[in-house]
Amino acid sequence: MSEDMEQMDLFDFCSAESSRTAGPVLNGMYYERSTDMFVSFVLGRRHYEEPAKGCPHLKEWQDRIKRERSI
Q1: Distances (CA, A) of 60 to 9, 36, 56, 64
Q2: H-helix or E-strand containing 9?
């Protein structure tokens, strides 16, 4: 093996990726105040949106999500 060769760490991207994320990764349904919508997140990516006005879910569920999971 020659002296100018360097061994690469194939799993180095894992530590670099985790240091990039500043906050927790969102999973589940949240209420987004700025848009007045219920938004579903999967692994931090926006998946599904539903307007709060005319939402078919129970009023108790809506109130709980607005209180506990608003972003």
Answers
A1: 51, 17, 12, 6
A2: none
Q: How many CB atoms lie within 10 A of CB 38?
A: 21
Q: What is the pTM of this model?
A: 0.64
> Could you give the CA distance from residue 60 to residue 58 in angstroms, rounded to a whole number?
5
Q: Which residues pair with 30 in a beta bridge?
A: 39
For residue 40, count CB atoms less than 10 angstroms from its CB and return exposed for 0-12, middle for 13-18, buried for 19 or more. middle
- The rounded distance, in Å, linking the Cα atoms of 2 and 60 is 69
Show Cβ contacts of residue 35 under 8 Å, excluding neighbours closer than 6 positions. Answer: 49
What are 12-38's pLDDT values in tens digits? 665 555 555 567 889 999 999 999 999
- Look at residues 21, 49, 18, 17 and name the one whose alpha carbon lies nearest to residue 71: 49
